[in-house]
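notes to self, project folder thing:

trying the whole complex as one job this time. last attempt i did each chain seperately and stitching them together was a nightmare. three parts in total, labels are on each line so i dont mix them up again. if this works i'll redo the older ones the same way
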Amino acid sequence: MPDERLAVRKTYKLFIGGAFPRSESGRSYPVHGPRGGGRGGGLLAFAAQGSRKDARDAVKAARGAFGRWSGATAYNRGQVLYRVAEMLEGRSAQFAAEVAAAEGVSQAAARAQVSAAIDRWVWYAGWPDKVAQVAGAPNQVAGPYLNVSTPEPTGVVAILAPAVPSLLGLVSVLAPAIATGNTAVLVASQDHPLPAITLAEVLATSDVPGGVVNILTGGQAELAPVLAGHMDVDAIDLTGAGPEQAAELEGLAAGNLKRVFRAEDDWAADPDTRRLLMFVEIKTVWHPAGI
Amino acid sequence: MTATQGSQALDEITDWAYAPAPQATDVVSIAPENGLFIGGEFAPAADGRQFATVNPATEEPLAQVAEAGQADVDRAVAAATAAYEQVWQPMPGRERAKYLYRIARIIQERAREFAVLESLDNGKPIRESRDVDVPLAAAHFFYYAGWADKLEYAGLGPAPRPLGVAGQVIPWNFPLLMAAWKLAPALAAGNTCVLKPAETTPLTALLLAEVGQQAGLPPGVVNVLTGDGAAGAALVAHPGVRKVAFTGSTEVGKAIARTVAGTGKKLTLELGGKAANIVFDDAPVDQAVEGIVGGIFFNQGHVCCAGSRLLVQESVAEAVLDRLRRRMTTLRLGDPLDKNTDVGAINSRVQLDKIRELSDSGEQEGAERWSPPCQLPERGFWFPPTIFTGVSQSHRIAREEIFGPVLSVLTFRTPEEAVAKANNTPYGLSAGIWTDKGSRILWLASRLRAGVVWAGTFNKFDPASPFGGYRESGYGREGGRHGLAAYLDA
Amino acid sequence: MADVATSDVALRQILHGLPGVDEVGVRDRVAALATRSIKNEAKLAALDMAIRMVDLTTLEGADTPGKVAAMSAKGRRPDPQDPAVPPVAAVCVYPDLVEVARQAVAGSPVKVASVATAFPSGRASLAVKLADTRDAVAAGADEVDMVIDRGAFLSGRYGQVFSEIVAVREACGPAHLKVILETGELATLDNVARASWLAMLAGADFIKTSTGKVSPASTPPVAQVMLSAVRDYELAAGRQVGVKVAGGIRTSKDAVRYLVLVNETAGPRWLTPDRFRIGASSLLNDLLMQRSKLLTGQYAGPDYFTID
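result (full assembly):
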């Protein structure tokens, strides 16, 4: 008790274009633990309260990064994702502490969640150079043509992360989207945003090019409609949205015919390829075969 | 000065001589005696027998290596069986995956060491072992690590099961890479392995075993038996081995097929070839010449899928050959450890004799031999890059696999004739096509009886790309989703 | 070869009849040659060769006689502390500064090269381009670096490009003509090969990659294609044309990589300033620093070399 050292608290900012800016609005909001949870429901930290302009900047960064990320070899994307897993593993104690504080679960449960999140990330790291072998194929057309279908990334994907589990849910919605070459603007859970920003720190130190993943914290009611209606966003994952908001967002998304995805996942179960194949376009090419 | 002193451009016309650029070898430390790797530990052969492995560029011995006998084969298969039943097969795929990822990573960390050791033991240029063999080996482990927990998506059924212990016998031309091609898919699928590297190139397999230890791989999952052909035969015949994989000569492949006949063992074979590299009159000619050179002189022509027959359209034959000869004069032959060497040593005296015998037959049968002027080092096993023109289909050098830096040049008039000549062989491993016309590439590709068709390129490999032959070039595929089939009960 | 008709149709048949260039294959070859390890005496020889091949360049709107004189002094004697360092091949300036440059290099082997023909865009009438050329030659330029009309090339008016080069060649008189293809605007390696042949058929003494004002400027794949072209042209027509790479070549490592390309593609007979040049400005000091490291064993610092 007497010589207890005062901790240097972390400032949680947004993650846009590989950098950590504050919100252009200058706002932030307090993040508390759950009532009766680990730290008695007290203040955990302030998180940046992202604005529509931050969302706009994030989309711009994601679009700017898309050419390079989708143009990288699948092997390279797999290597980068595996490195993220290495960094996650190295920080697993930190993540466990944050998850426990955020959700009010025990240390053991938090550690289990973090391990599951890392393993899930590794699962997705192994997919980029296999997706085409599973979801693409040559097609036997009735003529002297080579006809091949290949999955290609859709583009910029907006993702509303689920609130719980705060890390495992986050990983489960983000990794499949970027494995296939998409870039992402992710809106973290409003109540449990902190693991998302710590994840951003991992991404920033894992050879992930700036702009491939962008993470906004703040009010989902404020940020989600901006992304849902943004004409330069190609797809949106409504997983973290409540049912009424989801309907409104789906309506907004129709403005440029975004691909819309929404699912009720059992986060504890091993994923299938649904999320992985959600944000791809099938490109079919014909070429004659003749002497 | 040492016998190996840099490398020289072959006709020494250059005024700007590249100074020797030797790769430092102090990154490697080779133990004077090396044991077998069984059950997670290195140990001498049961009867203590050893043999020497030699640097083919200098003929100097590198180390003594244990020679596996029947007792060692038995012990290795027993260790692999125990590991399979108790540890590896019950392990969830996601955990197996992590071991393979670790191995891939450690190969990357020890890349320089592996490259130097490979060049010392095999004779191939350090540039190739550094830029091709080692990175591809690591990539193979990365790729198959990712399949270990996704087998239900491989198109082989909802719950494909591994086979058990795999006995794997590999050749001397790409020692580390062939080990990776065998081990990675087998382990990913849940099998355990007993690997028998080639007699003249045991060292990188033993280093890979050490990497397995460093990765924490459970004992017995991978076992390495160094030894000769008899050790390989004993392994293949062992009743505890449920799956046999062999890469090597067609002759030995047939013997293995006979051995396993009726035993229920699954077998895949990757054997010889006599690939046709087909150049049309509209080919991008400079790139075609690169493809010809890369096709037959890469790895000194010790490549099963080498483009060892050039089929050039008659109307452009002289023009292409002029360019080819000019290009060959810039090939640098010499010390494999020199970073500027393009053509290294022949792997063994035995192989050198074979190449010489077949090349002499080429001259005897009436073909015309040409090599750029070349100074071969005094010690070591060397053969200059060589082309034979005026070759016809009936010549031995057009039919038999030479497995050396020797190209046989034939001509053709029409695409149909090219296909007929290319297919006129019991082999069917690979083929190359050089033309500006996409349609023609696809027309030819669909008619060539070859498991791998390269168009506009040659000798390109990727863990995601299935590799294997038709007919007497073997059966089964390695690499890609299809490469899993060999190691699963599906 | 000498009687090539200048009509668009005839030239199209010749240029489009050249063998195609596979871009991936070129990149592979260039990447393989980039692994050449040039060390010790070979590196020293390369650095000295590179210095002797530099066209030390200033082509800015803000150029003044003072700037040109200072740069020319450096070109004559690149390293004031080491007289063994050879002078550069040439200084390269705008036509209205040729006189200044000529006086500054008088008495040394350094040549004066001038850009001309409405450099860098090439967008002006033929009359203006020829007047530009004549000004440079009259002021004493030993070499003229002209630009081709890329608009004409890309719209298929090969005859116009051809006849402009012929006209400029004539206006050069005794001066040598380098023809800048501006490869960054030609976009494909097939176009680079075609433009190379077009320039050579029209009488170019050198073909040059870039103005340095457009990105990408010189790249190894482009240089590779041009070096193959000059080799093939000599075999076909019996005349040896030089190659100049310009723009974006800042380090000794880059320069040595280009020399390897020259050596193993066109051949060692092109390893001379009469047949290969490097248009650059900041490269020279990096060459000097690398040279110093080789000779003294210590890494050099920029303060030990003059900025001009």
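what i see at first glance: Chain C touches chain B through 28 residues (CB under 8 Å).
need to look closer tmrw
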